[in-house]
Amino acid sequence: MTLLARIRRLALFLVLVAPALTFAQGGQFTLIQSSPEPLPPCTPAVTGQLQPQLWDTTAQKMVTCTATNTWSQMGSGGGGAGGGVTNDILTAINNASSIFAPVGIALGNGNTAVTSCPYTVGADTSLTAVDRGTHIIINSASACAVTLNDPSTTGMGGFFPVKFTNIGAGTVTISPSSSATFTIATGSSVGSSTGATSLPLNQWQSAVCNADNTNWYCDAVTGNAGTLQGFSVSSANPFPGNCLVYGTSWAPGSCAAGAVGINGTPTQYQTGVWASGSQMGSVGPGTTGYPLVSGGASTYPAYAQLTSAGLNITATPCTNQAITAIAANGTGTCTTIGNAYLANAAITIAGTSVSLGSSTSSFPSPGAIGGTTPAAGTFTTLIATGIVDGEAPITITTSAACNLGASSGCNATAYDSGYTFNQEATAGTAVTYTLPTAAAGKQYCIKNSYNGSAADTGVLRFSTSAAGQSIIYNGTQGASNGYFISGGAAGDAACVVGISSTVWEAYVQVGTWTVH
User: CB–CB of 499/507 below 8 Å?
Assistant: First the structure.
């Protein structure tokens, strides 16, 4: 190539590259390489080198090489924002482009109501604000403890704002984690305080709190004890010496016609109604279940029990009489009950219908004992012209002692007679049967029986109950507080019968017996 040709090519090259050099060295813009995803490999720059940068045409964002083959968005947290709706707020999103978003108050606890207690208000983390600036709804059927960490706690600074609302039946108690206190404003002196260590919220109450980075300041909506056409009634008469008068709204006024006075406590208050300056009546707290009773011309009505005058049935008491008629005005008539009132009446007695009235017939025979009579009974004397049949009391004993005619020990019932059989497991065991105090007609029998494997052969003994009691056998009377005893053999059997209040008569059925 000739020298002239070389000079011409060099001149053409300078003409072509001159604009790019001008722009790169202080012109209006710098050319940046672009690439779609996937982005090419890269290595971060070291001292003296140019840092690799690209325009990601797929994601439409500037990226730079932050590690080997790793591209990261430039200016994350602030870059990429643009456009948006007027009055939207630029909102930072962790590890993504900031965006313009509408202003709103999110619910706390991850946008859900708090139903599990205790609950701790979420502090800011390094990545996001948790409960800051949110509305925390608590819905718990039982008491709920909420911890609001001190403003000095990590993540709670920056004048931390938060709102609480209790919609559950359980009382919510908000407490700081350490030394912070609450300044509470309710709109009145009731419930307002400074230096409080907790903030209680009943159902449907709420509070908006923020901090001065040391303590908490809360505006609480606690409601009122009651309302009267829009007027709050919280304690004593709010207008002492005046009455409430309703025109277009309730306002203090004089106690004249149409006025209502209110005083007392929120749970028990009293009202009075005036007419022409004179109070006509007053209704206040009373006993549960009592009706409202007029006090007459000069006394206020009150809750009280009704008297006979209040019932207004008769002017005088009905002694041994019955009220047979009540007039339309409530007045009753006292009448003595005679046969005329029982004519053609039927009365059931022990299952038998008896006609009363003009009939003079005697009561019919009640029939056999039983049926509608008690299952057991005690009779002083029972004489029958026919057969009296029934079961005799039977007692089985398996111990060495038994009290006859008593409702304890070997007997469930204190019978005046009965048969007792010895079935002691050890066949030769002696058994003592103690008699009750003698009485004419009482009778008891004892006998050695069979214990399931052998015949019982133990000595059987009737013992009297106390001094002065004795037993007669075959014409011989035993000693005071004496006894009647067998020889101790299989089948031994004897009976005693009371013949007076102190003496028993014995007779033997089986065995050899002696009286002592």
Answer: no
Asked if 55 and 115 sit in the same domain, the reply is no
Q: 24-28, 331-335, 372-376 — which one is most confidently predicted on average?
A: 331-335
- Would you state the structure tokens that stand for residue 472, as one six-digit string? 């007669």
Q: For residue 134, is it within any domain?
A: yes
pTM for the whole thing? Answer: 0.36
Same-domain pairing of 417 and 471:
yes
Q: What is the DSSP letter of 459?
A: P
Tokens at residue 182, please?
A: 């609450």
Q: Report d(CA 384, CA 387) in Å as an integer.
A: 7
Per residue in 336-371, pLDDT (tens digit) is 877 666 665 555 555 455 555 445 444 455 445 544
pLDDT digits (tens, 9 = 90+) for 256-281: 555 555 554 444 445 555 554 455 55
What is the distance between the alpha carbons of residues 320 and 191, in angstroms, rounded to a whole number?
63
Which residue in 431, 477, 514 sits closest to 504, CA to CA?
477
In a domain, 475, yes or no: yes
Question: What ranges in 25-115 are assigned the alpha helix state H?
Answer: 108-111
Task: Give the whole-angstrom CA distance, residue 454 versus residue 426.
Answer: 9
Q: Is residue 266 included in any domain, yes or no? A: no
Q: What domain range is 459 assigned to?
A: 397-515
In a domain, 507, yes or no: yes
216-221 and 182-185 strand pairing: parallel
